[in-house]
Amino acid sequence: MSDLSVRDGLSAMEVASYLRRHSDFLREFPDIAMLLRLPREQGPAASLASYQLEVLRDKNNEFSRRLHDLIEIAHENETLMVRVHTLTLALMRATGLADTVTRVVASLTEDFHTDLVRVVLFRSEPDLPAAEWLLVEADGRESMPAFAEFLKRGEPLCGRLQQDKLDALFGKRASEVQSAVLLAIGEVGMLAIGSLDANRFPPGMGTVFLRLIAEAMSAAVGRYTDTP
User: Disulfide-capable partner of 161 in 55, 165, 198, 205 (CB 3.0 to 4.6 Å)?
Assistant: First the structure.
């Protein structure tokens, strides 16, 4: 007891008295409970030993949950990377502008399980398909003033788009889109992906894979278009 009699201005009896008056102290500071050394004999100390075991069990469960979440995220990222790689290879094999944009839409719909896709091109080509998902603005970006600020910044836009943007991109299906992502395709156009799920593309979501898709598409489309 002599080593504990006085330390840092407090006596062992004062510490003990304080703990008796504040029985929840160790609950608020579980790290201190983990540092305490208990006597081996049976007695009141068993309750503290049980508490330490409970704290260790809770920490182990928390670590297990975090590890599980990290594994899930890693698995999802690996799956996304494979899909982006597959899309990139498909674009490298494309034989023209029409084939390029068709492959993009097919991949996003089938591999990425998207609801609505829209490709906007600021240039018209005779071989482009007449499809609902393709919007051709031959007069360039000036013909879509609602997107002027977005195109100036060039950053991916996620979340709930403004109504004028939704109407311009998705037309009669604009009311179905609960969340969306909008990407600039270099200087030649835009790529929009709409979802019926409000949580699919939330504001502030990670955009690493979206940027990779946009860059791959920009390079592929750029082979067949001139800068407006």
Answer: 165
